[in-house]
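[job 4471] stage=fold_predict status=RUNNING
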Amino acid sequence: MAKKLPKTDVVIIGVGWAGGIIASELTKKGLSVVGLERGKERVTEDYYMAHDELRYALRYDLMQDLSKETITFRSNEKVRALPMRSYGSFLLGEGLGGAGVHWNGQTFRFLPYDFKIRSMTIDRYGKDKIPPGMTIQDWGITYDELEPFFDKFEKTTGISGEENPMAGKRSNAYPTPPMLHTPSMKMFTEAANKLKLHPYTVPSANLSENYTNPDGISRAACQYCGYCERFGCEYGAKADPVVTVIPVAKKTGKFEIRTLSYVRRILHKGGKATGVMYTDLTTGEEIEQPADIVVSTGYVFNNTRLMLLSKIGKPYDSASGTGVIGKNYAYQVIKGTAAGFFEDQKFNLYAGAGSLGVSLDDYNGDNFDHSDLKFIHGGNIAHTMTGQRPIQNNPVPEGTPIWGKDFKAKSLKYANSVLTVGSQGSSMPFRHHYLDLDPTYKDQFGDPLIRITFDFEDQDRELARYLSDRCGEIVKEMGGQNILKLKELGPYEITTYQSTHNTGGVIMGENPGNSAINNHMQMWDMENLFVIGASAFPHNSGYNPTGTIGALAYRAADGIVEYSKKGKLLV
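[job 4471] inference complete, writing structure tokens
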């Protein structure tokens, strides 16, 4: 029998960006909050002089142990799903701060089009533009409604950036100036301008200058060391929950963090959540934490799995298209890239930062005419300098042998002479793409793993080719030769890293018929349960998701405070 603890006002499941924001905002309002994190404690000092590519980038020191819990994957419902036992297509983080510790820091706002994608697509192109089986829907909120919360997240994190001429209107400028421009970034900007495109510096959570945020948290400027993605920042220059929102919550005296606490069920009775049951990983003891309000702020798979294991909400059924938990899983189309070889030029590609780059949105959202194209939406195109660490980077021209004398000679010749222009393509949901509980495979506690059913569609193949061609045009204008582009997007395969931007499963919407939560992240059918994260996205945009997660978390925090006073479903 589980040990029962005294009740708290709020219990948070997962202390990453969303959990940290909720903890900070609620404790400032006087609510007592317990944060349960299944990973271990983390502090900036852990990463001092830890530029170890082998440990962090290749052996995944900050990631989840797949031998204890993983996901299973199948491309369609006719085949058996198998567990992912080694990291490939995406990485699952674990520990205090979540993926906010080892992200790159690229902090975009989704476009106004994203939030009303179905209605705006139909208004411009008609219903026939949406192919059979594609389940896009409006989010139940507009960009203008969310804009103040984007602004708040950017001020908390000190985002360094400049105006994007093709994005939604801003109420304020970025709190810090854009990052420095390298020679290759200047080449990209000049090429894009010649092609009459609209380049701008990537909005960055790697600080361009020293900064103190509205909560009084001071951080140092980025040193451009190139160790961002898959690494913690030894300078605190990269915004993460451990150096921004979590200290604010701790300072109130109202926030208790319990690490190595693995939440296995949300407890509920009579249509209301009553708390959570978790296992203390240090002792194996089962513990019940009662709470007036429960907030699930985990990663996409964790949020969805917890709803299914706890029997909250109606599971999605692909055959009938009914149900909401597990619906609208989406990924990201990341392979629309182009690389050019610069025969007589050398660049310092080993220096950089996770969010150092120049991008453009001329081919993102509905910023361009799709009338004669066989896809909707698009993607952000960028040239980034994230730091090409030596073990993972060794580009050679197409046709070069993969070993031997010629391979070695070409490797040396083209080291620091290859520039890439890449894209982040959007991902549209389809009726037969979803998350559910695997009927065969279980975790270390005997609970079913989450199962992904997903593959690339014609929408994705058309989009990837289109974006790759646009990237190739920019590389050519930059002066690149022997340009490598995508020829064909094959079936989705889970063994090669692509993107950790998974979305959907506990999606938001305008009504309980097509969504699990409202625009305050509140469960339609369990009013004191809030589910926050990229699991709320009904589709994935052509951007990194973190900026939009942060904005939704700040809006949800306001909603939770309001609910704590009024005790009813928010509208």
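[job 4471] summary: The first helix runs from residue 17 to 28.
[job 4471] exit 0
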